[in-house]
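dumping this here before i forget
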Amino acid sequence: MPSAHEAVLIRNLHALNCRGILLSWASLWQSGHGHVNNHGVPYLRRIFEGLGYRVREDLTHAMRRPALRPRAKGGGLTYFAKNPIALERVHPLPCATPTPAAARDTRVRNRSPREKKRSSST
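structure:
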């Protein structure tokens, strides 16, 4: 993520979640292709704590455990041992997850005129 677009990405991550974010960002001095805007965990922690998140140390530690890390040909992906961070909203937002009945009602309301006519004639 180029630094010019960092604020937009963070804004979108913040706006589009209800409970939290699982994030992995290239760390400072991490080698590899395409790492153009590396940051350390303290920087990410400050940014997201300022937006009302807390770091879930238990989940962060669990994501960094070797058994859960993805494997690359020839060994583990060592960057994944230090980059992931689990962020939880201090005040979660109510999620708009439809109940099965609400989903069914939406399908009924969104039927085409032909479908509505067919169902009313039966």
